[in-house]
């Protein structure tokens, strides 16, 4: 087979074209710092790049939005419980003072007035909002959980006994049982006679100043857990069950204490409330400890996500980014090859009159 000048020229041109393409590739890599600029250059790298970017995007979603939202809920919950703890401590101090039989009516009235303000403050804390969401009303975050105007209402202001009402006596809640026609806690039963709650079995009336009537709608009824995903497949409950701390018994005991003070009671009549207040304080402390435990877990998840982000970004970089030093060496090497090819080609491709006559 005879090799003609035309065949040599075609081969040289092909070599030149390939060299130019490689030079262009190296130049683009050097300019962008990336191995490819379009998927067709390397589909495998392109597909892996999509996967890594998706993973980094998911991690950043948790770090930039979900985790901060969890912190916000928990910080506000802990702060609210801390504030309630301070209020309950003050109420405990006032209760101990009121149990002192040496206090006069004016002093007891002053304590009652302060207690009323503290109770209203507890209710305001219970209606805490974060970004327009009530944090102590389960998943019903658009409605306020507490309405103190519907708590400690006068018995005479009740409509006929029905399921809309309940009353608290001695740290126990009694709800209406339509079938039996009584208010019951499952053990004791009471009926309403002449604006008095009377034991259905013994006909013994309850002390009026120890009975606190309220509407059920005045207290939170939604106890569902609000969860936020903090990691793929991992959700954390960010709220507390308000019904376990801001209870009917809490407000019932506080208002009963206020009623007794307004009636001028002290000493033995007040002493039992010291233990009741302590029990309510323990409930808040228990919930606060639970919030603290969850907070610690979220911090660990946060740290883990930061580590995962670094790992994912490194993997993405290794997949996409070029080794600049190596690219420069390849570019220089290809430039040398190109110059040599151009020199050889210039000797091979000699245009003459024969070429035009051929």
Automatic annotation (TrEMBL):
KW Plastid (keyword) present: no
InterPro entries the UniProt entry points to: Flagell_FlgL (IPR013384), Flagellin (IPR001492), Flagellin_N (IPR001029)
Keywords on record: Cell projection, Cilium, Flagellum
Top-level taxon in the UniProt lineage: Bacteria
All residue ranges annotated as the Flagellin N-terminal domain in the record: 5-141
PANTHER family: FLAGELLAR HOOK-ASSOCIATED PROTEIN 3 (PTHR42792:SF1), FLAGELLIN (PTHR42792)
NCBIfam families assigned: flagell_flgL (TIGR02550)
Name of the protein in question: Flagellar hook-associated protein FlgL
Originating species: Jeotgalibacillus marinus
